[in-house]
Amino acid sequence: MAENRSTDPKPISPWLKQTLELGPPLLFFVIYLRLRDEVFTFGGAEYSGFIVATVAFVPILLAAMGALWWLTGKLSRMQVFTALMVVVFGALTAWFNDERFFKMKTTIVYGFFAALLGLGLLLGRSLLAYVLSEALPMTQEGWMILTRRLTGMFAALAAGNEVVWRTMSTDTWVKIETFGFPLLLFAFLWWQIVALQHHIEDEGKG
């Protein structure tokens, strides 16, 4: 029993956890607003304010994830994957001086989650249940329903990002990326928890 406890996340203030998780995107938004009309020259090449804000976002995110890991002793696979994508596509954005790489990152992240959950469904399994069943006890049927719906939601967000960054301004993309997509996903998950209440199991019954 003691060995299992050592792998459990350490307690942390919910407010601090939310700050570390949501703070970096908000800081990126603020930095972008301050730099969006500026042009910077490094090594003889000109870089837009968006690209400079993207490069600044990478260490901010890594510092926040490092602090979260130090305080809790654990990071989710989703957090690790998202941070890796930010580093890779942030580097590509800076190297090629092309903001499209960072914008495509969102499509790839959402698309990856949709594909991963979809693969589990094809195998007759809910990968969500594998990751979250301890935090949210629910019937197998409930997990399969939630997985199918979330797969569709991630696919829709990936497609939505493609439409936004290809057809709208950078300003619009930054606002939707920072606020629109996360709020849509949060609202969707909240709606699903309410809709699937009859599938949630009461741990006290055992």
UniProtKB/TrEMBL annotation:
HAMAP family: YciB. The chain crosses the membrane at residues 47-72, 78-96, 108-131, 143-164, 176-193. It holds the Pfam family IspA. It is found in: Cell inner membrane. Keywords: Cell inner membrane, Cell membrane, Membrane, Transmembrane, Transmembrane helix. Belongs to the YciB family. It comes from Rhodosalinus halophilus. GO terms for cellular component: plasma membrane. Its main location: membrane. The lineage of its organism: Bacteria, Pseudomonadati, Pseudomonadota, Alphaproteobacteria, Rhodobacterales. It is a multi-pass membrane protein. Plays a role in cell envelope biogenesis, maintenance of cell envelope integrity and membrane homeostasis. This is Inner membrane-spanning protein YciB. InterPro entries: YciB (IPR006008). It comes from the Bacteria.
